[in-house]
Amino acid sequence: MRITDDQRTALQNLIELTPNGRALRHEHDNPKRGAELQDLVRTHKELGEERTRASEGVDRLRSAIGETNALIEAQRTQIEKKTAELNDGTGLTSRDLVNLQNEIAGHEDRVSELEESQLEEMERLETAEAELSGVDDRIAEVTTAGKEVQTAVKDRKAELRDLISANEVSAGGAKSSLPQQLVSAFEANVAQGGPGAALLTGPNCQACGQEIGAAVWKAMLGGDLNETYECEECEAVLLRRS
Ligand SMILES: [Zn+2]
Fold it and tell me: Which CATH number goes with the domain that contains 125?
């Protein structure tokens, strides 16, 4: 099909606009920082699980310390009670007094043991709390990074939507100046994933690579520069390079 110089310009624009629009849509659907964002989301989730474990560890140690406290209190109550009995001394034999003293000493030993184990629990609690606070810091970092990447992805998508719209407007303008038959062939090739149209740089279809027969190629070279062809293989619109 013979086209005018203006139509040739429009078709050449379309040849440039089509892969550009396809690349823009691909990037919109597959954001460049998408994998990074996925990684951050996964890390955030893992840290959340780590935080639950760390927090449970802190809770366990706190309640263990509380239980040890209760045991120490119970021993002290016994010590007070027996010390009062000892000081009162009413009706007690010297053997009772010795027994009471031994019992009090036994409770005091137990208090010392409990206080020692409580000290160890407190040290472990300190470590567990530091660990929990470390996890919280990392969660805060990942959250900040995640928000930053999410915003960047969102902004780039908005930018891409604008570029895609502009590309579509330009392509629409180019198509409106071309013959309908040519536009239909172009669109059919694009729908199959092809470029729609291509400039010929030699005896091969630049859309699918199909070789153009020597006789046909010779006829093309002898024809008008604004003559368009259709690839026999992929049906792309072909135009000789000017
Ligand atoms: Zn072809």
Answer: 1.10.287.1490
**DSSP annotation of 211:** B
Instruction: Examine residue 216 and state whether it is found in any structural domain, yes or no.
Output: yes
Under the banding of pLDDT at 50, 70 and 90, the label for residue 242 is: confident
Q: In the predicted model, is pLDDT for residue 174 greater than 90? A: yes
pTM: 0.73
Indicate whether 78 and 35 sit together in one domain. yes
CA of 214 to the centre of ligand 1 (A): 16
Three-state SS at 76: helix
**Banded pLDDT at 119 (limits 50, 70, 90):** very high
Bridge partners of residue 198, in order along the sequence: 238
Residues with CB under 5 A from ligand 1 (ion): 205, 207-208, 210, 231, 233-234, 236
* Model confidence band, residue 185 (pLDDT cutoffs 50, 70, 90): very high
User: Domain boundary at 121, 143, 176, which?
Assistant: 176
Asked if 196 and 143 sit in the same domain, the reply is: no
* Same domain (yes/no): 168, 206: no
Q: Rounded mean pLDDT of 133-152? A: 98
CA 21 to ligand 1 center in whole angstroms? 20
Tell me how far the alpha carbon of residue 24 lies from the centroid of ligand 1, in angstroms.
24
| b/e code 30-67 from CB counts within 10 Å (16+ = b) | ebeeeeebeebeebeeebeebbeebbebbeebeebbee
Q: Cα of 123 to ligand 1 centre, how many Å?
A: 76
Supply the range of the domain harboring residue 144: 31-176
Q: Ligand 1: distance of its center to the CA of 234 in Å?
A: 4
